[in-house]
Amino acid sequence: VAGLASTSTVFAAEDTLTVGFSQVGAESDWRTANTESMKSTFSEENGYELIFDDAQQKQENQLTAIRNFIQQEVDYILLAPVTETGWDTVLQEAKDAGIPVIIVDRMVDVSDDSLYTSWIGTDALLEGRKAAEWLNAYATAKEIKPEDLHIVDIQGTIGSTAQIGRTQGLEEGVEKYGWDLLEQQSGEFTQAKGQEVMESMLKKYDNINVVYCENDNEAFGAIDAIEAAGKTVGSDIANGEILVISFDTTNAGLTDTLNGKIACDVECNPLHGPRAEELIKALEAGEEVEKLNYVDEEIFAADDTVASVTAVNSLEEEGEYAVTPIT
Ligand code: GYE
């Protein structure tokens, strides 16, 4: 009996998994929700010891954090990378130390994909394509000529998957439909920078009628800048309103969609904690896990009678992107 008791004590101690999580930063509401999801999943009561590091949007801080995790001999490394490139060396170090790495949210672009175990996140290119198809359906329904859509793009952090995919989705739309893309500039996914960039663009161009914000916080900043300039946001371009497209569907973003300030908000789900835990549990059980795990997402529009949100939502990754407007 004594033997059994001590065995179970040892087992309990071994049962606690140490997980190091290198987080991008705290730039947006989406990020805050993501951090909360990770912290509440990898909690002490769930049997984890979580070492959390906030990199303040700097890759060099993430490299330091990962090297510290390796030194501390954690069981798993979770990495939400700020940008896609520049990870080969540090991931090789983790691999050499025998520590599995799970990439969360944005992707890494590495020469050898055995440098990480698995990835969980969103399809940012599909998100961008959905937004562009919605814009086309909207313009068609409102009988606005493509060349009369004067667009500015407030981009995310340059080099991050969320920026690369969302920017590409818009650029494909510009190419395909012939919209007038006035300028692209990064708002670094923050409200303050989104506002600053929008202020300068409003001074530069007097014909902006579409603002494509690559996340909700940039949209909040852009809306403030537009309203401060005495203009109105909304879906009525013909009557001088500026149409705002955004990504994330945070609480405040969806509130702005319901009140018509954001015309179309593309969902991006931040609740990756339980998904990452599922992968870890499978690995602990010795199971094979999928390399790439995409989360399903939808779009939400202020006025669903203008263009078919359902049709846009049914777009497949490799599919046909034409959407029929509701007439
Ligand atoms: O859209 C943005 C955040 O990588 C999907 O990062 C994430 C993005 C998200 O700062 O709000």
From TrEMBL:
Looking at the record, the residues that make up the Periplasmic binding protein domain are: 19-263
The alphabetized UniProt keywords are: Signal, Sugar transport, Transport
Q: According to its UniProt record, where is this protein located?
A: Cell envelope
Q: Which CDD domains match?
A: PBP1_galactofuranose_YtfQ-like
Question: Pfam families, per this entry?
Answer: Peripla_BP_4
Q: Which domain of life is it from?
A: Bacteria
This protein's record includes keyword Phosphoprotein: no
Q: Which PANTHER family match?
A: D-ALLOSE-BINDING PERIPLASMIC PROTEIN-RELATED, GALACTOFURANOSE-BINDING PROTEIN YTFQ
Protein's recorded name: Simple sugar transport system substrate-binding protein
